[in-house]
């Protein structure tokens, strides 16, 4: 199928912007000039420019024309799933423990709860090709309906656990990634040396009001962890 002419024009202008031939906040040639340059009607040019406005490559100023937007080249988008960050194939999880506990000071702070609030803790060991790769621990303030039976919880992600409390469309995650040396407890669980660094991927699940409704950490030996993302063009 032939590519529409307006799309060819938008592709060409997009390339000029992303390669720096049109700098941020610089004006594009007028619609009449572009019509002559591409040998098309002004309507076709306008359609191509509107595509780039919708894609946030351009912005328009009434009476002045179209201008290139500043392109962010340092933003990346990645899809996060606890098992997907583990290298290899044939990935699986094994439930270690599900328990209801009293919160310590850190949990009271991270989950913004009262000291008498019960907390569900869920621990998993993650494997790749039958080899131990990571340790995952999640903390969720107890609510009626939360799955705490082993057959119900092997292996579901953070949003899926909380879906019984609120819609997944009403929550968002904050994720931080750092590298550190493992504690004695983590090195024992992962069967690694205390001098072997681990990735620590911390998640905090927030509701619509920005209040925490879940907190967890994934510990993965540096040789077993892979995080990939695609650059995001735009503001």
From TrEMBL:
Keyword DNA-binding: yes
SUPFAM superfamilies: Chorismate lyase-like (SSF64288), Winged helix' DNA-binding domain (SSF46785)
Gene3D superfamilies reported for this sequence: Chorismate lyase-like (3.40.1410.10), Winged helix-like DNA-binding domain superfamily/Winged helix DNA-binding domain (1.10.10.10)
CDD domains in the record: WHTH_GntR
Molecular functions (GO terms): DNA binding; DNA-binding transcription factor activity
UniProt cross-references to SMART domains, sorted A to Z: HTH_GNTR, UTRA
UniProt keyword list: DNA-binding, Transcription, Transcription regulation
Protein name as annotated: HTH gntR-type domain-containing protein
Organism of derivation: Acetobacterium bakii
Highest classification ranks of the organism: Bacteria, Bacillati, Bacillota, Clostridia, Eubacteriales
